[in-house]
Amino acid sequence: MPFEPTPASIPPPTVLLRQDPPTSWAVNYTALNPLSVLLRAALIYPDKPALIHEDVPRPVYYTYAVWAQRVQNLAYALRAAGIRPGDRVAVVAPNCPLIADAHYGVLAARAILTSINYRLKKHEIHYILEHSGAKIVIVDHEYAHLVRDFKAGPIIVSDDTGREGCAYEDFLASGRLYSDEKGWRGLEMEPDESAGATLCYTSGTTGRPKGVLTTLRGAYLAAVANAYESRLTRESVYLWQVTRVLPMFHAAGWCFPWATVFAFATQVTIRSVNNTHIWNHFLRTGVTHYCGAPTVQIGLINAPEARRLDKTCTAIIAGSAPTAALIAGLEKLNIATTYGPMTRNYPQPAWAALSAEERSKLVARQGHAFATADEVRVVQQREDDEIVDVPLDAKSVGEVVMRGNIVMQEYFSDENATRNAFRGGYFRSGDLAVRHPDGNISILDRSKDIIISGGENASSLAIEQELAAHPDVLEVSVVARPHPRWGERPMAFVVLRPGKDRDGFEERLNAFARERLAGFECPDVTPQVLDGTLAR
Amino acid sequence: MPFEPTPASIPPPTVLLRQDPPTSWAVNYTALNPLSVLLRAALIYPDKPALIHEDVPRPVYYTYAVWAQRVQNLAYALRAAGIRPGDRVAVVAPNCPLIADAHYGVLAARAILTSINYRLKKHEIHYILEHSGAKIVIVDHEYAHLVRDFKAGPIIVSDDTGREGCAYEDFLASGRLYSDEKGWRGLEMEPDESAGATLCYTSGTTGRPKGVLTTLRGAYLAAVANAYESRLTRESVYLWQVTRVLPMFHAAGWCFPWATVFAFATQVTIRSVNNTHIWNHFLRTGVTHYCGAPTVQIGLINAPEARRLDKTCTAIIAGSAPTAALIAGLEKLNIATTYGPMTRNYPQPAWAALSAEERSKLVARQGHAFATADEVRVVQQREDDEIVDVPLDAKSVGEVVMRGNIVMQEYFSDENATRNAFRGGYFRSGDLAVRHPDGNISILDRSKDIIISGGENASSLAIEQELAAHPDVLEVSVVARPHPRWGERPMAFVVLRPGKDRDGFEERLNAFARERLAGFECPDVTPQVLDGTLAR
Q: Residues near B519 by Cβ (< 8 Å), separated by ≥ 6?
């Protein structure tokens, strides 16, 4: 397909992609900054495909050289629009080149990227725009109505065509003019590696969204760790999509916008939610890596288009614990799983001798700290506020806590929340877990999701894990239901696998549960014959 | 083979391998330190083989758990011996567990490791001991005579058996006592990531050896980059040896003592120079990775024991440029090459279509900056002392310069040499190179090795590259010889490949040279029928 980037996207004929180090730096010091990985990729692999965006009326394909020029243009345009170091730049966009640009261009302008989930309600998006103090919004045309009331600065709308005449493309072209052909040397490097990189907001939690501020140092070290742990290479093809795998707007795409480029890989962005498009990339573009929370992948593997892949693809799972059933389902499609940051599961040699189900259970553990992360601990708080490790007995429940370079800097503009999250000198995850004798951790639940039934602690996650092993279960979610006698009782919402017999299912599943679970853990089952999945 | 580590080497039954972060650190800050990779490996893979040392009367095998305990013992013993933060600890040892221990134990004592080449002359070793101000020497029994006159502190001799009764093992056992079972928490973490890690001395250069001081930050970032770039994994087996591959004492083993452990790999140390032992490890232990300068590997691939490997092994080449002939020779044995820090060669997709010889020439280029390194530049110095890049024309010769996190901190106790090395804000390598239109660099020579023949600059390396392509040449070294008419003339010392015809070789090689080289580059050839190789 003939594709021509805009004239402003075509770099001048030079390979020098370099910024000038501040004179205050020692010869052996460079502030860690994920921006550096793009300049290096564009220097070494200028002609390699960096971004592929195909399932749209006008597909675009950017090489590393062209993409780096677009990023440079964006940085100049932002500066010309008044953006100063430390300012926030908001982006509301689906998976498309624009948001990939922003993960570099905003940093190149020494600003902080606030990417916002476009599926939030308008008032939530406005709360985030206001709380972050964003000075500019770059928005995809489909979601422009969500930010129409933004008053703090310019709104740049992209029609996602990569064509001149689109406001976003004109904005980039203006940046090229401002650069005056000084190129990268006209953009000062951020001297402080503790400066902010991204400000992404929580959602689906209690209360108002909180802004998670990350640093350049943390983003860089997490990206390098991801590239290493996921075995990303220059042959890798990474997929961004919103309903079946991780979208880029979510939590800085778990640092994969930078990890992929560190590895010189190709990123595929699709705004489509169409299974045919998604599986087309797996089967024909040759996707080798993606990230995703467990629930969204249930839809991926159960799509009618799903086929076993010729070459192993790696799924980086995070967000919540994968069930053994999900891991087995992915393996059938030749999709290997790793369970990602901040912890990951490190398979042990002895596991090779176990049955698939036994192994799946071990693989579903959260494991150990990631490369470049500090040890993840499971702790209880003593009366004097000191935190102590739980015994390594696979039984004593504590809270998962962590610290180190890849932990966030703070909850933005929220000293109370930050102080609370960091009490005891660790980030308190709110996840309840046990620690096995080998130091592995297993998350039982979010602390607010633990079910207290007859005085016993039942883990909704552990119950889900067991029920998901039943062959007729497509998906299962367990919650606490108030109960007059037991205080709380677990209640299971179950999606029947298509084609399975509805009659007697409840009894079959209850019998299955009684075999595998303690009495206080046995749920009241409410089978739901639903279209699609529980996951939204 | 039954192997029992000393009682002091057996860790207490706990997996908690953790130091307390200084209270001054933010929750999202941990000083980068290569020590951390060992504690993580011992936590996650306690029972995995970390060190294998086999070709000695009493072989030893250390798991990660045991090794970490030995390292902890060493740190306590060093502190009890009076070692304070920033002190230097000298090690004179062949490839054996002792020197691997020291790469962690010395850092755990917050001291700086000075590992010394035991093949230097006694007076050179003493110069280094004195200049570094080492406070203690740990020495292998075979080389104890070299440090007998050391007066500044204790000399700990190891008999390399791993057995109680050896002075080094007793030293470790004493460390275990001092730890008082406080374990790792009794050793404070180094708060400053710019603190010294290693102090290794140059040799074979003009004048006195210079001490290259590296930082913890630099060592950590270089180790992570090496693990990534070399694709080290927990299945990897890394070989240390002294005559055919890189020994650990040399330049901190190019950071592979830490890169291997970051990857949870197994290190094999052999003190033997016996080809049978070396090839035994390639063929039976299953070595997957090693480092080496080009010259030492000529002996490796030409050993009678050499066989094609079943599984591809990766050779990380550095020190000088590999000839295309060497790369081809390694490929025949199923040994793939990467050309390592600070630069490496990044193969381009288009190279796949080229002939083996053409591709070898491209692969032999020094390439681009390594992961975690800043761009490597080729520069000339203007009259006003500003440095400017050479044109990317593959012709203009400049000096290779570099800066960034993986550059050394300084020449220890030598302000003049440091200032000179760092003039213009870059480390001046002294290597002369050109830069190709794609930004790749090719080193022509050390600046002092360039041959000026009839006013033309001849590169000894380029001449070596061409002569090495002749099928009868095993090894070649080109130097400048003074000449009454031309000023200098290249002179080649050539080792004839065993079994090749001595008669007429000179003429054959001269004819070959005339076909491939300019007149001023054609050397006077002095074929040498030598046993072994030129490389010592």
A: none
Question: What's the average model confidence in pLDDT over B69-78?
Answer: 98
Cβ pair A434, A441 in contact under 8 A: yes
B215 contact residues in A (CB cutoff 8 A): 28
| Nearest-neighbour CA in chain B from A69: distance (Å) | 17
Torsion, CA A350, CA A353, CA A359, CA A362, rounded to 10: -20
Residue A483 lies in a domain: yes
CB within 8 Å: A368 and B422: no
Within A141-256, strands assigned E span 155-158, 196-201, 211-215, 237-240
Answer yes or no: is A431 within a domain: no
Candidates B43, B372, B392; nearest CB to A15: B392
Contacts of B346 in chain A (CB under 8 A): 44-45, 234, 264
Helix B35-44 / helix B64-80 crossing angle, nearest 10 deg: 140
The answer to whether the Cβ–Cβ distance between B375 and A27 falls below 8 Å is no
Indicate the pTM of the whole model: 0.90
Predicted local confidence at residue B475, as pLDDT: 85
Residue A190 C-alpha, separation from nearest chain B C-alpha, in angstroms: 14
* In-domain check, residue A71: no
Report ipTM (2 d.p.): 0.89
**Backbone angles phi and psi of A290, in degrees to 5:** -155, 165
- What CATH number corresponds to the domain at position A472? 3.30.300.30
| Closest Cα in chain B to A439 | B15
**B-chain residue closest to A401, CA distance:** B27
pLDDT at residue A4 above 60?
A: yes
Contact B40 A375 (CB under 8 A): yes
Q: To 5 degrees, how large is the angle CA A172–CA A177–CA A183?
A: 90
Structure confidence by residue, pLDDT tens digits, B111-128: 999 999 998 889 999 999
Cβ-defined contact of A368 to B44 (cutoff 8 Å)? yes
Closest partner residue to B18 (CB to CB) among A28, A349, A375 is A375
Biggest CA pair distance of chain B: 77
Tell if the CB–CB gap between A403 and B227 is shorter than 8 Å: no
Check CB contact under 8 Å for A407 and B28. yes
Residue A378 has pLDDT above 90, yes or no: yes
- To which residue do tokens 């998976």 refer? A95
Res A190 pLDDT > 90: yes
Cβ contact A224–B43 (<8 Å): no
Q: Report how many domains make up chain A.
A: 1
* Best to test chain B binding among A36, A48, A213, A228 (most B CBs inside 10 Å): A228
**Domain extent at residue B469:** 450-528
Amino acid in position A334 = N
Rounded to an integer, what distance in angstroms lies between the CA atom of residue B512 and that of residue B507?
8
Alpha helix stretches (DSSP H) within B304-374? 324-332, 356-363
The one-character DSSP state at B42 is H
Buried b (16+ CB within 10 A) or exposed e, A431-447: bbbbbbebbbbbbbbee
Helices and strands in chain B, H and E counts: 14, 26
**Cα nearest neighbour of B17 on chain A:** A375
For residue B256, what are its two tokens? Answer: 């592979």
Residue of B389, B521, B379 whose CA lies nearest to B453: B521
Q: DSSP secondary structure string, A427-461?
A: EEEEEEEEE-TTS-EEEEEEGGG-EEETTEEE-HH
Note the helical H segments in B375-440. Answer: 415-421
CA distance A339 to chain B (A): 15
Residue A464 lies in a domain: yes
Q: What is the DSSP letter of A79?
A: H
Are the Cβ atoms of B346 and A234 closer than 8 angstroms? Answer: yes
Tens digits of per-residue pLDDT, A413-454?
999 999 999 998 999 988 889 999 888 898 886 666 778 777
